[in-house]
């Protein structure tokens, strides 16, 4: 008998993240990997949570009423899938997500989405601290290029890799889409 799949948590896959103004990013195939995992989870009847960032700033592309706040078409939640709306980077803060997971007996979660060094990392850290067994899927997450604190420009891949290093082993296990699918198929 196969063990049930962990809950798949898809973070901030909104139209605003696909706009050129979002910046230079890595993992151009992340959406394809997220869709592949989402289809696998749906086929198994497993739990899926979609997280949407709602900005408190009216100037943000993620402000209520802006097109950027909408989910990307290929990753739209189904009516029975849980949607969490957050106002900060961490999907657990003031959202009821922990309670929703606990009530359903979920103790394992898989994180995908954006951005690796902000919402994915913040949410995975909290999940780890709360005792959830967590996986972050390295090729189903992505980051944007940015300057570090010393003013050095870092590529999106560098930002992504450092964020995954921050999480690996301490808060989450880092896996690729293929490795996760092979693990889930093996049960």
From TrEMBL:
One Pfam assignment: Isochorismatase
Annotated Isochorismatase-like domain residues: 7-178
Keywords annotated in UniProt: Hydrolase
InterPro entries registered for this protein in UniProt: Isochorismatase-like_dom (IPR000868), Isochorismatase-like_hydrls (IPR050272), Isochorismatase-like_sf (IPR036380)
Source species, domain of life: Bacteria
Hydrolase is among the record's keywords: yes
GO MF assignments: hydrolase activity
Listed name of the protein: Cysteine hydrolase family protein
E.C. no: 3.-.-.-
């Amino acid at each position: 008998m196969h063990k049930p799949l962990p809950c798949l948590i898809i973070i901030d896959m909104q139209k605003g993240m696909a706009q050129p103004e979002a910046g230079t990013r890595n993992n151009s195939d992340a959406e394809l990997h997220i869709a592949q995992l989402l289809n696998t989870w749906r086929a198994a009847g497993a739990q899926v949570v979609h997280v949407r960032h709602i900005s408190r700033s009216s100037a943000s592309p993620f402000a209520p009423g802006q097109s950027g706040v909408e989910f990307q078409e290929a990753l739209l939640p189904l009516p029975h899938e849980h949607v969490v709306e957050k106002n900060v980077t961490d999907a657990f803060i003031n959202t009821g997500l922990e309670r929703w997971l606990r009530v359903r007996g979920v103790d394992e979660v898989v994180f995908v989405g954006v951005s690796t060094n902000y919402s994915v990392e913040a949410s995975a850290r909290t999940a780890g601290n709360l005792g959830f067994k967590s996986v972050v899927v390295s090729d189903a997450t992505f980051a944007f290029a940015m300057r570090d604190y010393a003013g050095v420009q870092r590529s999106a891949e560098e930002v992504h890799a450092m964020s995954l290093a921050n999480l690996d082993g301490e808060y989450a296990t880092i896996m690729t889409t293929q490795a996760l699918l092979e693990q889930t198929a093996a049960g």
